[in-house]
Amino acid sequence: MTIVVVGLGRVGLSNAALLAAQHSVVGFDISAERVAAVNARRSPIEDAELARWLSERALDLTATCDAAAAFAGAQLVIVATPTHYDPETQRFDTRSVEAVVREAAQAAPHATIVIKSTVPVGFTRAARERLSAPHLLFSPEFLREGRALHDNLYPSRIVVGDRGERGQAVAKLFREAALQPEVPVLLTGSTEAEAIKLFANTFLAMRVAYFNELDSYALTQGLDTRQIIEGVCLDPRIGSQYNNPSFGYGGYCLPKDTKQLLANYENVPQVLIRAIVEANATRKDMIAADILARRPRVVGIHRLVMKAGSDNYRSSSVQGVMKRLKAKGVEVIVYEPVLRESSFFGSEVVSDLAAFKVRADLIVANRQSAELADVAEKVYTRDLFARD
Question: Is the dihedral of CA 363, 308, 290, 240 positive or negative?
């Protein structure tokens, strides 16, 4: 099968690499740098397993910046372009997805087009007619940052928003590419599939927010957060996953997906979904206040990225804390090896870790790191279990 994957970011590239082991795959991206990296079998994103897969496996994968060449002969088109949340419209910005779907439907009218980008509930059904794309369907991705290929090889489930032959074929394609012998498969309506994605991520955000608010309570009452969490999580109905306190849920997906789901509730009574969104801001307020109470002169932000093994710092929770500290006039410096700039939102980026440790009298770290062990007395973190 000839497959085109549009957008070679975390979602698109992991799907392209996965399927190229068994099919002919063309990756299309507007970034010449990203295309060159893929053609050189280098991963342009930080993902150790994906990097090894690209360099060591025999893959039928080519990348291009030429859309016309990419769509020629396509039997399946996977759309994985970004859909950032627009706070003004309170909706995902789906323009890149719409442009790709329109072009793909014209260039390859018989091809199945699969949206992997996260979109508002009801988008796909409306887009089929509006964009003249009758073979359009939605299939959500459930990938973690830094583990995208792994989560495609060993998927928790495969959800396809089409119950017909095309939906069955797409599900079969991903099931056969997986290394996991048994994968739960759900064929459903496109709108239900879109809702599954948003509700799943919002539930994860709710769990993160819950344990953060537990931690906030314990902090203000002088209690041992770790003991409380361990006792709560011994209940098998609750479990110990996603129970490690942080500065808030962040990254590319959870903040925007929770806000989009809230927007979809425009005419539906609700309390919980809004509370999940608002809890994230409240947590950052609380963390910033706790830091300010220590009266630091210079605060060092150790890493902007959300988790180990990732190079993504978009919407990371520590940035919200950082902005609150700066608003109170505190000098903030940043140590983040991913950054190539000398400043970040008006704060100096210090590339030398040793100098960073000396200059900061308080070091704020969303997650613990062995490289801060020698200045542990300076470190402020709510990471109790040393895991993401």
Answer: negative
Count of structural domains, the chain:
2
Q: Are residues 241 and 327 in the same domain?
A: yes
Same structural domain for residues 328 and 182? no
Reported as a single tens digit per residue, the pLDDT across 212-257 is: 999 999 999 999 999 999 999 999 999 999 999 999 998 778 888 9
**SS3 category, 307:** coil
**Residue 379 parent element (H or E):** strand 379-380
Residue 388 falls inside a structural domain: no
Q: List, for residues 103-149, the tens digit of each pLDDT value.
A: 999 999 999 999 999 999 999 999 999 999 999 999 999 998 889 99
pLDDT in tens, 145-178: 889 999 999 999 999 999 999 999 999 999 999 9
Look up residue 105 and give its two tokens. 């439907």
Catalytic option among 37, 101, 253, 330: 253
44 and 136 in a common domain: yes
**Which residues are within 8 A (CB) of 4 and not within 5 positions of it... i.e. 6 or more apart?**
25, 26, 27, 28, 70, 71, 74, 76, 77, 78, 104, 108, 111
Q: What is the torsion angle, in degrees rounded to the nearest 10, for the CA atoms of residue 56, residue 60, residue 66 and residue 71?
A: -150
**Residue type, position 385, single letter:** F
Identify whether residues 230 and 317 lie together within a single domain.
Answer: yes
Known catalytic residue: 233? Answer: no
